Structure formats: C-alpha cells, structure tokens
User: Fold this.
Amino acid sequence: MGKRESFNDYEYLANNLPFGIMMVDSAKIIHNPNIKMTELFGDIDNQHIESTKISLFKPEIIDRVNEVFKTGADKSAIMAPIDKKSKASFQSINYYALKGNKGKTDAVLVVISDTGNTNQWQKEFNVLFENVPVYITIVDTEYKIVRANQRYRNTFGSTYSIFHNEVAKRKFESQANSTAFAFEDGEEHSDTIVISTSNREKAHVIVNSIPFAVKEGKVNLVMEICTDITEISKLQDQINNAHDFYTNLIESSNDGIMAIDIKGKIQIINSAAKKILGFEGNRKPSLARIKEIMPDEIFGEANDDGTICSNYDISLLNNVGESVPLRFNSYVIQNKRKIEGRVAFFQDLRKIKNLEQRINDAETMAFLSTIRALKPSVTTFLAKHKEMFAELNELITSEVKSKKALEKWQSMKVELEHLDRIIDGFICSVDESKPQLSEININNTLKDIYEDFKVFIEYNEINFSVNLNGFDILVQTDYSSFRRLLSLFMMYSLSNVKDLGADAKVSIHVMRKDGKVRVEIVDNGPEIMNFSTLMPPNFKESTDLKFGFFTVFKIAERLGLDIELKNDTVRGNVYSIISTE
Assistant:
C-alpha cells in the first residue's frame, strides 16, 4: 500500500472516531483535526493554538499543552463544555506526548470526549469485567484485592491475590510469582500454579499479571487475569492414558496396522500385521521385504486429502507363500501440512469379506445420500459468500470513499452478519445443553431485531412496519435462540424484496390466540420456493435444501416452538413463529 492510500486509511479511521482528535506541533500549530473536532470548533487546521478566535484554547488548556512539551508526560483534565453544541455536563481532555527517535516530544495529540461517552464506556467495561469467562482481580502492593469479578469472588474469596494462598505460599514468600515481577519491573508476566479454591478443591490456573496503575514510574496496582486449566490438566492425563490405551488397542487389533516414517523405517507393525504377512518373532521385517510382498499402490502418491488408497482389495502371497485376500487403506501422516510418513490398515478377508463388503456398501450409500442432499445448500452458501466478498473487495479497493459507498458497505455487512447467524444458529441447533429459559418481552425483542437490520432497511428503501396491537406480550424462552430465529426469517424476507424498489414491503405482526403467541413476518416479494419442501421430514430428500431453514427448524425444535411457512396469494410470503405465552 502506498503512502497516499495509508493516509486515506488513517483519515478514514480518524473521521469515524466518536471523539475529537488533533495534533499540535512544537510551533503550537494545529494539524489533522478530525471531523468531530471540526464540528465542535470549526476549521482550525493550521491555526495557532493561542488564537483568541478559537473557543477551544482557554489559558488552562494552553498551559497543559505547554507542560506536555516541557515534561514529556501525558496530561488530562475534565472541564466545563468549551463548545456551544455540547450537551454534556463536562468534557474530558487528554494530552498525549508524541515522541521522536531521540525521546524528544515532537507533537501533542489532543483528545476530547464527553463524559457521557466515558460513563457509557465505564458501564460497558463493568459488564465485560463481571462476565468474562476468566478470573480477574486488581491487587495492591500488599496483595490485597482492590477489585475482583464475581467469578473470582465465588471461587477464591474477595480478600487476597491468588498468590496469597496457602498452597501458593512458597511462591509468595520467595516473590517468585508473576505479580511480584510485574510490581518490580512494570512488565507483563505469566505463571502457572496449583491452588485451592474456597471449597478446598484443587485448581490449575494460568495467571497473567499486568501492570494496571503506574505513578511516577512505580507500579501501584496489578491486574491478574487467571484462566482455569484444571480441565485441560485432566485432559492431559486423559491423553497420556489414551496413548497407552491406543498402543494396546493397536497391538490388540485383529486388523494389520503398519506405519512407516519419512525416512523409510517401519515404526509400527502390530502382531496382526505380522501374522497376516507371515512373519514371526519380535523383530520388525525389513522395508525391502515388505515392498516385495505389498502391492505398489499402497506406496504411491497421495491425493489432496491425504489418501493413498482406499478400500483397495487384492490377493497377495505372504512371506510363507500363502495367498491372502486383503483390503488396504493407506494414508499419509501429516503434521501441520508436513508429511511425517504413511500408515496402512489391512484386513484379512478370508472370513469376513462378504459381510464387510455389504456393511461398507451400506455406509457408502448413506454417506453419499447425505452429501448429495447437502451439496446444493453448501454450494449456494459458499457462492453467496464469494459474491459478497467480491463486492466488498471492489468497495474497499475503490479510491472513492463516498457516503453512498459507506452506506452500501453497512448494508452488505448486515447480510454478512446474517450468514454468520446461520452458522451460529446451526451450531446452537446441535448444542446438547439445555436452553436458558427466561421471561422475555416480544415487543422489546422486535425493537432489538429492527436495530440489527435498520441500516439494511434504510439503504434498500424497504417499507417496513410493525403491528404490536398496543400491548406487551411475555413468553418463557431462550432469548438468544428466539432472537436468532427472528433474525433468520427477517433476513430472508428483506432479501426477498430488496430489488423491488419503492414497492418493497415487509411487516411484522404480533397476536395471541388460545394461549399461543404468534409472530408473523410478511413480505410481498416473489414466492421464494415451495415451502412444503422445507417442512420436516423432507430435508434429506429435497434437492432444494436451504441450510438456513434447516437451522431454523432445528432451533425451533430445541425450544419447543412451532414454525409455519406459507405463500399467501393475498399477503405474500408468511413466516410464523408460534410460542406458548
């Protein structure tokens, strides 16, 4: 990317920030104010900060800019509004020293934001702090907790750092722990310890200690982010056990198993393989003799999927001259795309050839049937992704960063997010955990859905309406899954009418009847397909399978909801979700 393109990227980013920024050079001249700064204070580019015509630069603000140039230290202040347009009670101003190679402050970056925004960010931080799936504490130099999230408090208490623990006492006393090092050198450190929870259960934890508050070059507070790897440690033990298990399994298998490394040495040849090939004793046969007995095909080149030969039937003369009918499967062994060797599995078919053939044929037919049913949907799905990303590439590489282009990108992004919802919904549909039921307000959920698609609706000029009948309806369901259902239907409906221009109409209707709540999404687009082919149990037989609709029905089944799809000659396409109130 050239310098011009890099500058445009920087300018684009700066102009989309929710706060004002600009740079002041050592001559006190303003450079590169973004759109937010210009909206607040007018065109101030290339002006001197001591100009009396600029309301921004009060004496106390100019003094702080001078202090940053003099000391090289960052400054901040909270002041009463300095622009007439501001609706905030106060404005936060931060001054950051921009230093050159020799450590001299060449410029000062000035950032202005409303405390209203700051308060919102603080709320969002608090939500994140309390809900991340890790333990978080902020501790002082005496290892006392200044703040800890609920997950940590529930597991380890609320008084001391994770290192101030009986099991971790030795590390704490010797200062050989990541938090001690973070206080000492101001750098981020990590450690792995085994400690006891409040319930005296053993826990394996990875701790990342990060300096959180530094004053005059000294670390006063450290944030500890702790990840519980107890299950991973258990998994490691299980892996070790599995290694032993599979070693025994290989040796106990009735099928012959032989593995050869990249250097041509036989690493594994089990007892069954030796018996089938006519070798006795504990010594491994030579590769040269194996190649004399084995068919050339199993030493051939691999396909793209790593298969050398699959279900390859042959009769061979083994080491003692016996004719043995065998079935071979041979594959390359890969580690991160690097070939480490090859492995062969072979069965003696003298007793089970016919039975195994029937089973294999049945499995093959079932596999092919599934693939044939899924192929149209997967192909359509991938083609849509390719089309969208082609448009995205054209948009991004265009030299024109127009408002229309930005609006088009925002609309496209809604469609991309919809594709992600399909994938996410499919994953949800196969989740074996129980839905998290709670009482939700249908009206509020529809407002959330509208916000998700607002940009897409406005960009495509779709006539959109919601008929709530003036009352709130509460249902017991899993909010995330229910919202995902509505989102999938909304995107199908909006996509179906987006090319109709001013005639495009989509509406949502909420009604209750006989203790049931019905949410209907209706569009006047063309009949998108024969809905009857989408209703269970026709998925496997349908050549027009749509992955998204399959996902809808699986989620609905999981939540105990009913789905109705119909093409009404008067109303149009109607997508209905029916729930018990």
Summary: DSSP finds 15 helices and 22 strands in the chain. Residues 353-397 form the longest helix (45 residues). Residues 223 and 263 are 50 Å apart (CA to CA).
